[in-house]
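Appendix B.2, paired examples.
Example (i):
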Amino acid sequence: MLTTMPLIYSILLIVITYTVLLIHGADCCTGWRLSPMPVFHYSGNFWWARCDYINTLIHPLSQHINKTWIEIDAKYDDCVHSKGRYFPEGWVASGPSVKAADCMNTSVDTSYLFGYKFPSTIDKYCPSIPQVSGLPCQTAAIIVNPRAFRRTVEYMASLSSKECPINIDNKIIQRSYDWYGAYPSTFIAMKEKMMKPAINLTDGLTIRFSDERLTYVVKNMTLLPIPNADTFLSMGLEFGKERVISYLDRPQYAIGQMLPSVTH
């Protein structure tokens, strides 16, 4: 009986997971997290997927111009990492409008994207002592709330090769057209939400980035640096009312020339 229990548990897990995929309308799911770096992928090749979705994906070994898609895709390996075992990690979530799911939402963690070392917070949900535990399969956290991962994505990108910029969207778009003749709408929508400025700009709004003391005032969607306190007060502005935003968002804003200094 002991030798058959692992098999029974495995079958039960597959049935439950597949049922959850059907209920939530997801195409594929992993036990932990769908990573956006460098492309959508399930780290370690641990995933489940619906057969009707798999049938919409390219066949990796099918021939195109006397080459398999695996061989063709090798041209993107400098940044997209699609050789060897990495190919299936990204292949399963490569559908242009994939409905991807995972089991680690943002309330658990926003620092983990991939790797063998899980965040310590996961112990709260999946303790080492065998018992009924875990999280339900649901729409992938990176798709639900991309901005929550912005800082982690930029930090991880800073550790990678300088030849591979944070934004490799053009390569991913080209690969999607190569494979499916379609725009990767789910991935690009996620990236656009992740990089969208945190606040709406209105004239007269004052802003300060989290890594500096300089204050800016908004005029015609442009941030104008205010040189000193006298200039600030002469404009009828109030101290303590400025919005503080992450320095990571600085590239998303147009910054103009320093305003003329006013002294009293």
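Example (ii):
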Amino acid sequence: MFIRFTYVDVVTKVPMSESPCIHGTSIPDISGIKSDFGNESQWPSRDAPIFYGTCDDDVDADSFKEFGCFQVTEEEYVTAKKEEFSRRRKISISRTKKKIQSRLEDFAVSGGFDSILEATTYATSSNKESAIKGQLAIDLRDATWNKFKEICSSDPEGVIQYSSIEPSLPELKWDIENKMNNVILNFLRFQNSIVFIEGNVFTLLMLVLLKSARYENTVIIYTVLAILILVSIFSAVFLSVKFNRFRFADRYVSCNKVAMFLIGAIVSVLSFTAGTLKM
């Protein structure tokens, strides 16, 4: 049968709910008694702890009431267990969240910040290194909480202990050099795209210009050519200033800027020559 009980005094057998167990505690001496769970989510408490379990079916329910033991229905037993483990889950999640937050705070302090919140505000800093650290803080913070949510979703009823999930959380490391290399790599890919587009535009423009030299009016072509050259120079200078914290990227932009000048000069000379030959 299903029962609810508490501790009794080792010597007097008086239940803890009636008197302190000054001689020590033990479970009631009932045939076949087994404890399944207790109200641990409410410990510590001034009230006597409550346990739920089973005992032999042939035990007289009235005989063990003096030990603070009572028979409960299966429905009451199942409901009490469900409520207890629900409370345990909420408590464990709350405690785990605090430890995860503490982990993030320690990580921020190791990077020279007062808190993880402060670290994330540097993502928009004009200082590129600080901006990268700020973005890294955001990425690792989000990855950590997303992993925690994933773990909670995978076990919707279980108790979430920090010690068991900590190895699954993202490693918190100020890997600034690797992050900067990724930023530079993305920038170079972007710059390569610009060079490819500009090169093709200048090539097509040169062909159109050479062909148009046979006609009277080439002013529009010259005007468009001049605008494209200015846009190219402006974009190169802008990107050079924007990424001036990265020496390698800055050198690359400078080279591209020189290349754009040369391309513009070559196209201008060719177009001028073509116009002169027409005349």
